[in-house]
Amino acid sequence: MKYLLTYTGAPDAPPPGPETLAKLGAFVERMQASGVLILTGGLVRPSRGIQLVCEGGKASVVDGPYAETREVIDGFALVEVASQEEAVAQAREFMEIAGDGTGEILRVFDPGPPA
Questions:
Q1: Integer Cα distance of 19 and 111 in angstroms
Q2: Model's pTM, two decimal places?
């Protein structure tokens, strides 16, 4: 099963220091070596993405309203694990290294191999 794990740091939290970055790097390397990690990355802050809305079959770029800054995703990981519990364990370990913030675990639709 594939899951998208997201992380948003607490708005008043300081940026991660060298020790935290080293621990995060080791965690990512361990996840890559185990084959669990498919893709990971961080998003530039405080920039916003481009938002689109589709109404009546026509998509257009919109100018707000946007989520509050504290709701912007700072980083993400796409993982492939055997169970939801394993996804929770991976996210929990990451967050305990990264520090205060919130995360979300979203199961990714996977239709399976082609017939």
A1: 40
A2: 0.80
Bridge partners for 2 per DSSP = 80
Q: Is the pLDDT of residue 102 over 60?
A: yes
Torsion of CA 31, 34, 38, 44, to 10 degrees: 10
Q: What is the pLDDT of residues 56-69, one digit of tens each?
A: 999 998 876 666 55
User: Angle at Cα 28 formed by Cα 31 and Cα 22, nearest 5°?
Assistant: 145
**DSSP at 71:** G
Q: What one-character DSSP code corresponds to residue 45?
A: S
User: Could you give the CA distance from residue 11 to residue 2 in angstroms, rounded to a whole number?
Assistant: 28
Distance (Å, whole) CA 83 – CA 42? 24
The arrangement of strands across the sheet holding 2-9 comes to: 37-42, 75-80, 2-9, 101-107
Asked if 105 and 7 count as a contact pair (C-beta separation under 8 A), the reply is no
Write out the E strands in the chain.
Answer: 2-9, 37-42, 52-55, 58-61, 75-80, 101-107
